Amino acid sequence: MNENISAKDLLNLILGNQETPTITENKEMDLNEAISYFLNNQIKNSIETLKYYKIEFNCLRPYFKMYNIKSTKDLNNDFVNKLITIKKNEGVKNITINKMLGTIKIMLNFLIKENLITESHITISNIKFKQAKITIPTKEELLKFKNYIDTKASLKYQVIFYILIDTGLRRSSIANLLISDIDLNEQSIIPSHTKENNEIKVYFGNKTKSLISKFIETNKKLKSKYLFPSQNPLKPIPPTTITKNFSKIRNKLGITSISPHRLRHYFGTNLIKNNVNPEIVRKLLGHSSLRMTQRYIDLNDEDLKSVSINCSIADNIEGN
Fold first, then answer.
1. Which of 56, 125, 211, 233 is the most exposed place for a label (fewest CB within 10 A)?
2. Based on the domain organization, do 172 and 107 belong to the same domain?
3. Are residues 158 and 268 in the same domain?
4. Any idea what the CATH number is for the domain that residue 220 is in?
């Protein structure tokens, strides 16, 4: 079969329609068809990833219309330069612009792999920017938050908090946990929902085990497959609900540095400080590459100072 067919024709073939595919001379696609095809193929990935791409393309559509971008061949360096200029004039941060460009590039690369277009006409690299320093709570702030959770929070949020600090799982993975994802005997979790749609395995301590066991027993009557069902037992709690609840607690306590994602950072940083092999940290955090882990975990100046002084060759070479 000739490979030069449009996305519409390809979908007709998949759906079993008898319409004959239209052969195109060059492997380019109508932009709307390209976006739809790309998004439809993201359904197999996580819901969060699909939502992210939908939001990015919704932000891009006005600029596609402004510059008359109707085909994948129109997505070129000229368009990218115009987009960068207008977004900078709007005061948009470089990292946000890079996310928009990254979404376009990911779609084009996907279409190339699917043999639907020949090549990407974008050769411009992303804008360089200084990586923002990761903020994590201090041990004192974490203890203050923990004491509130232990004494005033519901059992559900006690379980969520302890899973967060014991495993470093992402908020969305925790929200979508199935009871069957948890092995209480092994004290492990293999979340069925992950950002990269890859399998990871994490472990938890005795206190977390006790809380999870108690919570599952308490909620047996709901007959839900989810560990944290919403008001409708057939659906999981929305990830945003977890964030909102944490925000209310930290506002009461006057702590600004605690959120589900910052507790994930705390988990990763704590492993590094305890000299855990970075490759093990990568696996526990579910990162696809070690580069992501190295960028994700940020040691502050005091950490760097402490390591440098303790490992000083000049001070230790003679065994002093």
1. 125
2. no
3. yes
4. 1.10.443.10
Percent of the chain with pLDDT over 70: 79
Residue 244 lies in a domain: yes
CATH (domain of 13)? 1.10.150
Q: How far apart are the first and last CA of the chain?
A: 75
Residue 8's CB: how many other CB atoms inside 10 A? Answer: 16
Strand partners, 226: 178
Q: Are 160 and 174 in contact (CB under 8 A)?
A: yes
Q: Last residue of a domain, which of 95, 113, 131?
A: 113
> Looking at residue 316, what is its pLDDT?
66
Does some domain include residue 17?
A: yes
pLDDT at 2 over 80: no
Three-class SS state of 229:
strand
Q: What is the mean pLDDT of the chain?
A: 83
Domain that holds residue 213: 139-307
Angle, CA of 177, 182 and 184, to the nearest 5° = 145
Q: Indicate whether 81 and 158 sit together in one domain.
A: no
The residue type of 265 is: H
CA pair distance 247, 15, nearest whole angstrom: 46
Specify whether the CB–CB gap between 6 and 22 falls below 8 A: yes
- Percent share of the chain, pLDDT over 90: 52
CB neighbourhood size of 216 (10 A): 14
Which H/E stretch holds residue 182? strand 182-183
Taking only the tens place, the pLDDT of each residue in 277-287 is: 778 888 888 87
Q: Which position has the token pair 């052969």?
A: 23
Q: Is the pTM of this model over 0.70?
A: no
Rounded alpha-carbon distances, angstroms, from residue 73 to 19, 65, 212: 26, 15, 53
